[in-house]
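Backbone shape codes
____________________
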Amino acid sequence: MAAERKKEEDQAPLEAPDLKKEALLVGSSLKKSWQYVLAYFTGQTMRLKARTEKEASEAELKKAKMQVEATDEAERRKNELNKR
């Protein structure tokens, strides 16, 4: 009987605040993914347009910087949501 009650509690639907939090976390992950894609194509475009090795390396650095910023923003947002 206790095992059945435990099983029912485990299968209970998420509460509304939990659903909202989960949706915001998924949105944050999607935004991070989009920023990674944007950084990749920005870096590739800049690298293809580069005329010197210096410009190409600057393009790679900009791409890496954009990816780090995307990760930092996503982690900050997730931490903010987990505090709620």
